[in-house]
Design goal:
Layout lengths: L1 E3 H5 L8 E4 L7 E5 L3 E4 L3 E5 L1 E3 L3 E7 L6 E7 L4 E4 L5 E5 L3 E3 L1 E3 L4 E6 L4 E3 L3 E3 L8 E7 L2 E4 L2 E3 L10 E7 L5 E5 L2 E3 L4 E3 L3 E5 L5 E2 L1
Parallel strand pairs: 1-3, 2-5, 3-6, 4-9, 5-10, 6-11, 9-12, 10-13, 11-14, 12-15, 13-16, 14-17, 15-18, 16-19, 17-20, 18-21, 19-22, 20-23, 21-24
Antiparallel strand pairs: 7-8
């Protein structure tokens, strides 16, 4: 299943939840090509054998000078899945999960891989609490890999609501943070095997 930004934009507000994909006996994969922001206003669940955002996506547009249609390869790492209103974000896969940035204030973000890695190619996984709701980030997989990214559920609004970050990595596997990656934990925990930090300045493990 290939999902583009037009497909994702078709989901208007008003659904009790949005479920895309299924777990069948035959392996079924979801590939997301967004190259921009995809906004959801209702709870979203993606599930498949593997779910990934390719590093680059082909985008077609018209040049203003002569209105010739051209195709460019755009980095998908700049894309964002944005959950507003009551849109929690849940991504379940039997194998690998590769995602761009995910931002869902006051909501739950769940990335759950049964047998694969969780790789974040975007800049951040953010779920800060709001005055209306608590929030959480839960990640489970064989490995967590991210480069120049931030996982953060810090209470930045000084509300009474709380946030949690729980990272469960299968025993003997690793959390790998590269470059300027930041893992911020508030009332959270990091479980599993070795935690390997390969980064430059600005790495913090708080909580």
């Amino acid at each position: 299943l290939n999902l583009g930004i037009r497909d994702l934009e078709a989901f208007a507000d008003g659904f009790s939840n949005i479920l895309i994909g299924s777990f069948d006996e035959e392996p079924r994969n979801i590939t997301i090509g967004v190259a921009g922001d995809s906004v959801f206003q209702d709870p979203l669940t993606l599930q498949a054998s593997s779910i990934e955002v390719p590093e680059r996506v082909e985008a077609k547009f018209f040049r203003n000078s002569d209105e010739t249609q051209v195709t460019e390869s755009i980095l998908n790492s700049s894309a964002t899945i944005l959950g507003i209103d009551n849109a929690s974000i849940t991504i379940n896969a039997e194998n690998d999960i590769v995602v761009p940035s995910i931002i869902a204030p006051g909501q739950d973000v769940i990335l759950d891989s049964d047998n694969g890695i969780v790789q974040i190619i975007g800049r951040s996984i953010l779920a800060p609490p709001t005055s209306a709701r608590q929030s959480s980030v839960t990640i489970h997989g064989n490995d967590l890999q991210m480069t120049d990214a931030t996982i953060d559920a810090i209470n930045s609004e000084n509300t009474e609501n709380t946030s949690t970050v729980s990272i469960g990595i299968d025993v003997n596997n690793s959390v790998i943070l590269k470059d300027s990656s930041i893992l911020s934990l508030t009332n959270g925990s990091a479980r599993g095997g070795d935690i390997s930090v390969e980064a430059g300045e600005g790495v913090s493990l708080d909580g």
